[in-house]
Specification:
Number of strands: 0
Radius of gyration: 27 Å
Number of helices: 23
CATH class: Mainly Alpha
Order of helices and strands: HHHHHHHHHHHHHHHHHHHHHHH
Distance between the termini: 94 Å
Organism: Auriscalpium vulgare
Helix content: over 70%
Number of domains: 1
Structural class: mainly alpha
Largest sheet: none
Protein name: MFS general substrate transporter
Length: 497
């Protein structure tokens, strides 16, 4: 008597499975997390100097630099364990939620801090929660994105950098003028609660696969060209395979969850990355970006107050004018990285950014300063999307190295740069004779280093190798022509003989 197999119990799939696990929704959630992180980071930048002055502190630019250093220090310290836990246990959503809880607590502590050292501790906790967004959030996005769209989706998510800087400083300055210190902090808490909704709704790819839905296959199918659809269609397969019962057409394998790589220790991951010149260059570019970008932050409000008498509200408005162009620069550079490679856009973004870092030192009309500041931010922000796409490409070629490892290294490099940047910038501005000029010239020198390294090492075909190939090709062509002429002459001589 044959054994009757019982049908497995059918379970109802989660509500909104397809859009909650889709690449576009995850991109939106990760972008919102980056936006929230940058709002929390920047909402106090235009008001911290004035708040510390109101509390009776002196040497404000240096103190602000130390607070920004504390934020990045927390980010650096927490990045390795967060990356290890996320990759070891293949979990993304859990760490994202825990990071959000830490962010809420740190904002309440900052809002009610009675002394400077309590404010520093609160900024350290904010840095810890920030590392979760950058490490786990970007890894979550890469899990659900096909390789050929990684640059585009990361570029879109990285727009959160611009939106955060666009919203944070002006709103923080406005609320500080109208409501006071607590008003600026409460705004950050409200944004965090909105971010909480997105993180609760998202569904990881590994969970979606259990319900028979693969977001990677979904976006690949929606983006397939008519030619690709025609080739992969069942009719095309039947046309290629003979109409013979003995010939079996292989069925298309169902999408299954990829086998996780063998977990590596932190030292093993560092060793693999250290042997890749592409990875080291991308990480060094990230470090330089963090250093130069954050070096201006403790000095900019005081610089504009000294030259034009600007208060916190007007400084926030200058940030708006400067950051608006960067909203399109990150998606645009990410799209370019997908279609043309990371080498060109990285090199050009850095090359066009350097002159404007020098132009912001010109003490002329405020309109010239705002224009230079805007172009400086536009081109500098264009570096991040191709650099993160470059790291994702390198990570896919290294066995046992996951996305959390890669973006943990990225976050570590950015954290080191963003911690050193405001510390150096604040000290230079406070003690140098012309501090604003000196700190920006230091930034220009570092960008020039990044330009040279990117020209030599970034991309599958770095620009220097392309240049060498173009120089060698004419020489090879000339040598081939000479060899052909030599053979023809020898044939003529033999014919005469």
């Amino acid at each position: 008597m044959p054994i009757r197999l019982e049908e497995p119990e059918l379970r109802r799939s989660p509500w909104g499975l397809k859009w909650r696990a889709s690449v576009w929704f995850i991109t939106l959630v990760v972008g919102l997390g980056i936006t929230t992180d940058l709002i929390i980071y920047s909402v106090v930048i235009p008001v911290l100097p004035f708040h510390l002055q109101g509390l009776g502190y002196s040497g404000v630019s240096a103190l602000v630099g130390y607070m920004l250093f504390a934020y990045s220090g927390g980010l650096v310290i927490s990045t390795p364990p967060i990356a290890w836990v996320s990759e070891r246990y293949n979990s993304r959503k859990g760490p994202l939620m825990m990071g959000l809880l830490a962010l809420v607590g740190s904002q309440v502590m900052l809002m009610e801090a009675p002394t400077y050292w309590v404010m520093v501790v609160a900024r350290v906790l904010q840095g810890v929660s920030s590392s979760v967004v950058w490490v786990v959030g970007l890894a979550l996005l890469c899990d659900a994105t096909p390789e050929r769209f990684v640059g585009r989706q990361i570029g879109i998510a990285m727009s959160g950098l611009s939106f955060g800087l666009l919203i944070g400083p002006p709103v923080g300055g406005f609320l500080y003028d109208r409501v006071g210190w607590r008003g600026s902090c409460m705004f950050g808490i409200i944004i965090t609660l909105i971010d909480l909704v997105g993180r609760l709704l998202l569904i990881e790819r590994k969970e979606a696969l259990l319900w028979g839905f693969d977001p990677v296959a979904e976006i690949q199918a929606s983006a397939a060209s008519p030619e690709e659809e025609a080739i992969n269609s069942p009719a095309a397969v039947r046309a290629v395979v003979p109409n013979d019962p003995s010939v079996r057409v292989p069925s298309v394998p169902a999408q299954t969850e990829p086998t996780p790589p063998i977990p590596l220790s932190s030292l093993a991951v560092i060793g693999k990355l250290a042997r890749s010149s592409r990875a080291l260059t991308a990480l060094l570019d990230t470090l330089i970006y963090g250093q130069v970008h954050c070096s201006q932050e403790p000095a900019l409000p005081l610089h504009m107050q000294r030259l034009w008498g600007y208060n916190s509200h007007k400084v926030g408005l200058v940030y708006v004018a400067a950051v608006v162009p960067t909203v399109i620069s990150s998606p645009l550079s990410g799209w370019w990285a997908d279609h043309k490679g990371t080498e060109w856009i990285t090199f050009l973004a850095l090359a066009f950014a350097a002159p404007w870092w020098a132009m912001v030192t010109v003490e002329a009309h405020v309109a010239l300063f705002i224009m230079s500041f805007a172009l400086e931010n536009f081109f500098t922000a264009s570096v991040i999307a191709p650099v993160t796409a470059e790291l994702a490409a390198v990570g896919r070629s290294l066995e046992g190295v996951g996305y959390a490892h890669i973006y943990g290294a990225f976050n570590l490099a950015y954290g080191v740069g963003s911690s050193v940047g405001p510390l150096i910038g604040g000290q230079i501005f406070a003690h140098a004779v012309n501090g604003w000029l000196v700190l920006n010239l230091v930034a220009v020198a570092l960008i020039m280093v990044a330009i040279v390294l990117s020209f030599v090492y970034i991309g599958e075909r770095p620009l220097v190798s392309r240049l060498v190939t173009r120089v060698q090709l004419p020489e090879r062509d000339n040598s081939l022509i000479k060899d052909q002429e030599r053979r023809q002459r020898s044939q003529l001589v033999e014919g005469e003989i």
